[in-house]
Amino acid sequence: MAHRLLKSTSSKCSVPHGHNEIVSVSLKYNADRPLDPISNCATDFSELKRDWHGWIDNSVDHVLQLNQQDPLLDYFQMHEPEQLQRLLITPGDPSTEMLAALFICKFSAFITARKFPFHTAALTIEETPTNQVKITPQDVALFPRLSQPGWWCRADPSVNDLDRQLTQQSKQEFNVV
Questions:
Q1: Containing domain of residue 81, as a range?
Q2: Domains in the chain: how many in total?
Q3: Given this model, what pLDDT does residue 165 score?
Q4: Residue 23, strand partner residues
């Protein structure tokens, strides 16, 4: 992936640059029901794996992560609209901390949609071998902008809401005319 941090004090981070990220998720079983006595399993993980790995591999891998106020977003909207689905848009700078918080929200949305008998205990993103961030569901409260609905709340392949914003703008323009 690649990103840039507009508000960073490091000049290295203020230009687009890339990282190889490793995402790890820890689950905790909701112990309100016993395990299956024959399989000794709580549930079949295949659908959740398909959803999550599909999102990471098809929607997140090789995206450009941009702050929703990044001027590069205007460039892509005007000159390369076909690339908009490859932009992961974050409320504020796409720091590793923000990304981990967004990902834990997205993973939790997949769990909820599948009525999975687990909840997300933690999510860790390793940005470099010497830099990793671990977020718990309680830590998401440290990111007040994530309390607003966005792509991170939906169990779908989205990484931005640009198509929804354009639809809303078109509707507003139509109503004005």
A1: 2-31+44-176
A2: 1
A3: 62
A4: 125
